Automatic annotation (TrEMBL):
Short sequence motif 'HIGH' region: positions: 128-138
Natural source organism: Pseudohalioglobus lutimaris
Keywords of this entry: Aminoacyl-tRNA synthetase, ATP-binding, Cytoplasm, Ligase, Nucleotide-binding, Protein biosynthesis
Domain called Arginyl tRNA synthetase N-terminal: residue spans: 3-91
Protein name, as recorded: Arginine--tRNA ligase
Gene3D superfamilies named in the record: Arginyl tRNA synthetase N-terminal domain (3.30.1360.70), HUPs (3.40.50.620), Isoleucyl-tRNA Synthetase, Domain 1 (1.10.730.10)
Complex and partners: Monomer.
EC number: 6.1.1.19
Main subcellular localisation: cytoplasm
GO CC, alphabetical: cytoplasm
SUPFAM superfamilies: Anticodon-binding domain of a subclass of class I aminoacyl-tRNA synthetases, Arginyl-tRNA synthetase (ArgRS), N-terminal 'additional' domain, Nucleotidylyl transferase
NCBIfam families xrefs: argS
Length: 561
RNA sequence: GCGCCAGUAGCUCAGUUGGAUAGAGCAUGCGCCUUCUAAGCGCACGGUCGAGGGUUCGAAUCCUUCCUGGCGCGCCA
């Protein structure tokens, strides 16, 4: 719709230039906006305002000339000049009703586009260390990342989702020591408890399972507990497998799927880590100091240089991170989006700097990052501190069990990633109308309910007749719904382009509100068959868009509630 | 001290990339079920868009200086 209007305005401007009314060198970017107020028509343009200076004429006068020069079109019934010089476009009924036909024809495809042109994009998210269960923060990452994947796929990208599985390094040793301490009967209060050891109760669970000789079946590994409290390696393998299994179950319960789990340990096994170090040394960006090997990341915009190899010989996490991202690049991903918590934002410049230092022709701003701010959890009006090491914990599993998957996902994705989020457990658990997800789902269920009622009456919806009679939709509530439905594809495109799934969540709430208002004001199953079927077409279009939108958020669309 | 993110109604948050009179939910008050599911609808109340300066036809939005909160500033990840 916007494109058509843009075309008309372009033609009008070209005509004015031809008449010598406008200088030929003006190259305006024609902006067409949806109006906020329906008194201002359906679409509005500010071209006259932005061109007034170049034209040497008052905006309203210029606007009048543009309107005069607009070619006739069946889409626009009239134009109006308003305010300081806006041109308001009023669309014809038939053009605004056409969206219903499009939705019914395209079904689940409505709102999808091919702007991604089938290009590959990789989205990495969650990537939690296997040192504890997933908590709310990981949940936000999972909800946002998964929704992002769905949005990208819906806009024509070839999406690969990936979980970087950090199964090597110091934190894993810490995990092994913590479990071992529990195996030896120590408690976190004990003076011999490992420094910085993980104190959570789940460590005790792992230790008990290990000592009992349980067998763990995780996605990619199967380990049986050796039961020997002195065998640190066996404990490490067991603990990693155990927590991996827990995370598998958490993600499954959250309906989040990954195409690939990438193991950090594989970067050591393949020699990629070593090769990366050697390349960085060969490129002359490193130096030794205090027994450690440093990378001069300050040459690439970092505020201080970073250690790659510790004085005791091991690598910091930074190096495998660089090796990992080089691997992504070499797999051919021209576009990579890393979704992670903002507490890790310092890795952004670091990883990019490391990649630049490799001199492989990787673009400076590669990869993209979507950082979500912290989640604050409230329970009984008080903040619950999330600390793996201290053991006080709100797990994702708890939330899913208590709140339900749909509400949890909706809450975690309904805010812009860059805003801090307060997750009120009592509110989310309340199962009342405070939960906006129910409000949206209820709108979907209501449409289904109308269809059921129709069937009970021994009647059926004649979709053809409905589409033929769309011009009967003349109520203000109906016009508002039509306008809202027409916006959906733009919302999806914008949410995908800006990595902001919450736009979809907000849109669905507004759409549901428009629908509920209409539902209360006007009966759908009226005697007049033409009107009835037209209204059924509209309600079915609403149902379809809600289903499409909820799917992008990973939330179900129930047929009854 | 430096960097990143934020500051909008009593609370939780939107705000279509600089547009017209700043919106929604919750909370509060008053109405609406013999009619397709009341998990709903309508009306009312509620604002110095953190503060000051700047940019222009026009600023919650862009620039700048402060104030406040969160996160980061490891040879942890």
């Amino acid at each position: 719709m916007k494109e058509q209007i843009t075309l008309l305005v372009e033609q009008a401007l070209a005509a004015l230039v031809a008449q010598g009314q406008l200088p030929a060198d003006v190259a305006p970017k024609i902006q067409i906006d949806r109006t906020r107020d329906k008194n201002h028509g359906d679409l509005a343009s500010n071209v006259a305002l932005s061109l007034a200076k170049a034209a040497g004429r008052p905006p309203r006068e210029l606007a009048a000339q543009i309107c005069e020069a607009l070619p006739a079109s069946p889409v626009v019934t009239r134009t109006e000049i308003a305010g300081p010089g806006f041109i308001n476009f009023f669309l014809s009924d038939s053009s605004s009703q056409a969206v219903v036909r499009s939705i019914l024809q395209q079904g689940a495809g409505f709102g999808r586009s091919d702007v991604g042109k089938g290009q590959r994009v990789q989205v990495e998210f969650v990537s939690a260390n296997p040192t504890g269960p997933l908590h709310v923060g990981h949940g936000r990452g999972a909800a946002v990342g998964d929704s992002l994947c769905r949005l990208l796929a819906a806009t024509g990208w070839d999406v690969a989702s990936e979980f970087y599985y950090n199964d090597a390094g110091a934190q894993i040793d810490n995990l092994a020591r913590s479990v071992q301490a529990r195996c030896q009967g120590l408690t976190p209060d004990s003076p011999e408890w490992p420094e910085d050891g993980y104190r959570g109760d789940y460590i005790h669970d792992v230790a008990r399972a290990y000592l009992a000789g349980e067998t763990i079946d995780a996605q990619d590994r199967h380990v049986t507990g050796a039961g020997d409290a002195n065998n640190t390696d066996a404990i490490r393998d067991f603990a990693v497998a155990y927590l991996r299994r827990e995370q598998d179950l958490d993600l499954k319960a959250f309906a989040v799927h990954f195409d690939l789990y990438f193991l950090e340990s594989s970067l050591y096994q393949s020699g990629a880590v070593e090769e990366t170090v050697e390349q960085l040394i060969a490129n002359g960006h490193t130096y030794e100091q205090d027994g450690a090997l440093w990378l001069r990341t300050t040459e690439f915009g970092d505020d201080k240089d970073r250690v790659m190899r510790k004085s005791e010989g091991g690598y910091t996490y930074f190096l495998p991170d660089v090796a990992y991202h080089l691997n992504k690049w070499e797999r051919g991903f021209q576009r990579v989006i890393n979704e992670q918590g903002a507490d890790h934002h310092s890795t952004v410049t670091r990883v990019r700097a490391g990649l630049q230092a490799l001199q492989k022709g990787i673009p400076e701003g590669w990869p993209d990052y979507v950082l979500h701010q912290m989640v604050t959890v409230m329970r009984d009006g008080e903040e619950v501190k999330i600390s793996k090491r201290a053991g006080s914990y709100v797990t994702l599993r708890d939330l899913i069990d208590e709140v339900g998957r749909d509400a949890t996902r909706y809450f975690l994705v309904a805010r812009g990633p860059s805003s801090q989020l307060t997750f009120d457990i009592d509110l989310a658990m309340s199962q009342s109308n405070d939960n906006p997800v129910y409000y949206i789902q209820y709108a979907h269920a209501r449409v289904c309910s109308i269809q059921r009622k129709l069937a009970e009456q021994g009647e059926s919806w004649n979709a053809e007749r409905g589409i033929e009679n769309l011009e009967q939709l003349q109520e203000e509530h109906e016009k508002a719904l039509l306008r809202r439905l027409d916006r959906y594809p733009e919302v999806v495109a914008s949410a995908a382009a800006n990595s902001e799934p919450h736009l979809v969540a907000n849109y669905l709430k507004d759409l549901a509100a428009d629908f509920h208002a209409w539902y209360n004001a006007h009966k759908t199953l009226v005697d007049d068959k033409a009107l009835r079927d037209a209204r059924l077409a509209l309600s079915e279009a609403v149902r379809q868009v809600i289903a499409n939108g909820l799917d992008l958020l990973g939330v179900s669309a129930p047929e009854s509630m």
